[in-house]
Design goal:
Layout lengths: L2 H4 L1 H9 L15 E11 L2 E6 L2 E7 L2 E2 L10 H13 L4 E5 L7 E8 L2 E2 H7 L4 E2 L9 H17 L24
Helix pairs in contact: 4-5
C-alpha cells in the first residue's frame, strides 16, 4: 500500500514549483469590482466603499512619494490620483490578491484609465516589484514600459539622479525647489 503513493511525490513537488513572480491562484471574491470613491490618502493609496464598507486600497505595482514623510512630488502624486478618482463616473478595482478585512491591494481604473499607469507616465511613482497573477502579465509589462519611458524623458521623480532608490525615495537627493 505504501508503494502506491510513492509515484505521487514527484507530481506534488512539480506542482509546488511556480514562477516566484506570480501569486498562487487564490480564491478571490471578484476579479473586477465597481466601487465608490471616498478619499485619497496618498498618490498610491485611497479609500473606497466596497460592498458597503469603507476600505483602504493600496495600488498594486506602484509606489509614489509619501506626503506623510513630506517627500518631493508626494503632493503632486496625491493630487493626480485625487483628480482622476474624484472626477470619475466609474471606478473599478481589478484584484490579484484580496488581503484582510481592511487592506485591499488592487489595480485601479477610473473611467477605464489605469491610475497606476498615469502616475508612472507623469513620473509621480516608481514601479514596485511585487508578485502578480498569471492573468496580469500584460498589465505589469505595460506598467514597466511606461516607467521606462518616464525614466528616459527624465520626468518627475526621474529628473533628479539618485532620488529614486531601490525600495524608496531619497529626499536629500532632490535637485529642484
Amino acid at each position: 500500500m505504501r508503494r502506491s503513493w510513492i509515484w505521487l511525490l514527484p507530481l506534488v513537488l512539480m506542482l509546488g514549483c511556480k514562477d516566484p513572480n506570480q501569486t498562487a491562484d487564490l480564491p478571490i471574491r471578484k476579479i473586477v469590482e465597481e466601487v465608490e470613491f471616498v478619499q485619497t490618502l496618498d498618490g498610491d493609496e485611497a479609500k473606497f466603499r466596497i460592498d458597503g464598507d469603507v476600505k483602504t486600497v493600496q495600488f498594486l505595482q506602484v509606489e509614489s512619494p509619501s506626503i506623510d514623510r513630506k517627500q518631493p512630488l508626494g503632493e503632486d502624486a496625491m493630487d493626480l490620483t485625487d483628480s482622476l478618482l474624484k472626477n470619475a463616473k466609474k471606478i473599478e478595482l481589478r484584484y490579484d490578491v484580496h488581503q484582510g478585512k481592511s487592506l485591499v491591494k488592487a489595480y485601479v481604473f477610473a473611467d477605464g484609465t489605469n491610475v497606476q499607469k498615469e502616475l508612472l507616465k507623469k513620473g509621480l511613482a516608481r514601479k514596485r516589484e511585487e508578485p502578480f497573477g498569471k492573468n496580469r502579465e500584460n498589465l505589469v509589462n505595460d506598467l514597466q514600459a511606461t516607467e521606462l519611458e518616464a525614466q528616459e524623458k527624465q520626468v518627475g521623480i526621474w529628473a533628479c539622479p539618485g532620488y529614486v532608490r531601490n525600495k524608496d525615495f531619497a529626499p536629500e537627493k532632490w535637485c529642484k525647489d
